[in-house]
Write a structure and sequence with these properties.
Layout (H helix, E strand, L loop, with lengths): L1 H13 L1 H23 L6 H6 L5 H21 L2 H6 L5 H33 L16 H27 L5 H28 L7 H4 L2 H6 L4 H4 L3 H25 L3
Helix pairs in contact: 1-6, 2-6, 4-6, 4-7, 4-8, 7-8, 7-12
Length: about 260
């Protein structure tokens, strides 16, 4: 297992896109922080900081793309046969890819958060304080809670993309499902909440659980989701486990 994991990390590090993604995220944060510094009324600094200066949404897109390609590219280029020839079980091969994605997403979140703190101190330090009152606790605590909720919500999408990637030979379908799901939630949330209000049992559908990061920031969301923060958290973890389990079952039977 450890050998498989190291091989996956090595392959990711060798990709040119890995370096480019880091550079794009850093440049995005610098640009957004600079604009917020120059025109704070147009782009409120606190709101920008909570989203790591607009890098959070890019982390979602990049993570979904990497998650899909890490499996489908093995089949596209036939390297999956070489991996399986090493006498590792299919379960271990897939789990090593899960661990790679966990490591990579943690890296992206920590890197963008550290960069956001640096830019806050350098460019917009005088506009707000991390220890002032946030929406529930001190601002820094609410920021960490928001980013943690965003991470969990992203992993619901990643686990779904990993599931779909085990069933298709190209990454486009898996990526499309993840990105479309992300946008559909934001565009149709009002309709979803109306349906939940009429049929309360639908509050347990996975789309509703993608509202966890929104509810952490805006407590009034609980009136629409009909779920508490803890219920959303446990539900997200449950869906992540379910999607990953289904992915293993599909991967076991997939021909190479």
């Amino acid at each position: 297992m450890w050998t498989l994991y190291k091989q996956e990390v090595y392959k990711l590090i060798k990709k040119k896109s890995t370096l480019w993604i880091t550079a794009i995220l850093i440049l995005t944060e610098i640009g957004a922080a600079t604009i917020s510094h120059l025109w704070p009324k147009t782009l409120p600094t606190q709101m920008m900081f909570v989203s790591d200066f607009h890098s959070a949404i890019l982390v979602v897109f990049f993570s979904l793309a990497i998650a899909a390609s890490t499996i489908t590219m093995e089949f596209q280029y036939g390297t999956i046969k070489t991996v399986l020839a090493q006498k590792y079980s299919r379960e271990y091969v897939l789990i090593s890819k899960w661990l790679l994605m966990l490591t990579y997403t943690l890296y992206l979140y920590v890197m963008t958060m550290v960069m956001a703190l640096f830019l806050k101190l350098v460019l917009v330090n005088g506009q707000f304080s991390l220890v002032e009152k946030g929406w529930k606790h001190q601002f820094w605590q609410d920021w960490l809670a928001a980013m943690g909720a965003h991470f969990i919500t992203l992993w619901v999408l990643i686990s779904l993309v990993l599931l779909i990637a085990t069933a298709f030979k190209t990454s486009s379908v898996a990526i499309s499902v993840g990105i479309i799901g992300y946008f559909v939630l934001n565009l149709t949330s009002a309709a979803l909440f109306s349906v939940i209000a009429k049929y309360p049992w639908l509050k347990w559908n996975p789309l509703n659980f993608l509202n966890y990061d929104h509810q952490i920031v805006a407590e009034e969301f609980s009136k629409f989701t009909k779920l508490t923060d803890n219920q959303l958290l446990l539900g997200d973890i449950g869906y992540i486990a379910l999607f990953l389990l289904i992915g293993i079952l599909i991967f076991r039977k997939r021909s190479v």
